[in-house]
Amino acid sequence: MASSRDRQRKLARAKLDRQLARRAAAAKRRRQIQAAVGAAVVLALIVLSSAWALGAFDSKAEKKAAADVCVWTPQDASGNTNLKDVGTPATTGLPTSGTRAMTITTNQGGPITAELDLTSAPCAAASVAHLASRSFYDNTKCHEITTEGALRCGDPSGTGIGGPAYSFYDENVPSAPEASPSATPAPGQPPAYPKGTVAMIANPPGANGSQFLVFFKDFNPAKPAYPIIGKVTGGLDVVEKIGALPTVDNGSGAKVKPKTDVVIQSLTVGEPTTAPTASPSAG
């Protein structure tokens, strides 16, 4: 009998050991699963935190840096004392369509009004507007009445080499007209620079600053070089009157200096507009 009871106790003990072993194994598996889940959660949090830091969940994507519309090249004012440092215009966010009104008041009669072409010459318009905002042109002289039929203005020094301490590239230079057999523009073609045209002039060519031309008669060269920036919309009769003034030697042998001072008392530029404006007139 004792032997039978011993066997039953051993069997019961073995069964209990197996149950305990199974429970221990199950508990171990649970711990492993919990550890794996915890590690996955931690990894997910790390990934989400990194993504958040990098802006993946920003409600608005960051805008790309705006591209430059114009480039302003610094000029050495210490090497040319006729240059005047008044800062530079903006390079981005500039209007590239429509027009801006420009008003020139001189000592020679009523105001001369013009429109600057923002589509064809946005950088020239931006430069003129910037300089006007700094009163750069005020109380300066138009120092030449050119042999090409234009007033040359915008150089405070009156030397032809003055301007701001920056320059910018050519825009909107007319194409060369179709040549006749004599290598001059064929007759009947519209002029490259009709009367009333406003254009930049640079010294050296291509390094535009502040100087500009206002044509009081048609000009049609074989090789156009002046970038057109706008046209006169009013006061063309004043421009023609100034163009008829007698001229004297400018000190370098050229008889282009107005005998009577032509002073720009003020030059202002209005805000950009896309509305149609008046065509050039003689009034």
UniProtKB/TrEMBL annotation:
Keyword Manganese attributed: no
Tree of life domain: Bacteria
Keywords: Isomerase
UniProt xrefs under InterPro entries: Cyclophilin-like_dom_sf (IPR029000), Cyclophilin-type_PPIase_dom (IPR002130), Cyclophilin_A-like (IPR044666)
Composition-biased stretches (Low complexity): 174-186
CDD domains, alphabetized: cyclophilin (cd00317)
UniProt-listed Gene3D superfamilies: Cyclophilin-like
Region Disordered: start-end pairs: 172-191
Keyword Iron attributed: no
Transmembrane segments: none
One GO MF term attached to the UniProt entry: peptidyl-prolyl cis-trans isomerase activity
Physiological role: PPIases accelerate the folding of proteins. It catalyzes the cis-trans isomerization of proline imidic peptide bonds in oligopeptides.
Protein name: Peptidyl-prolyl cis-trans isomerase B (Cyclophilin B)
Annotated source species: Micromonospora rhizosphaerae
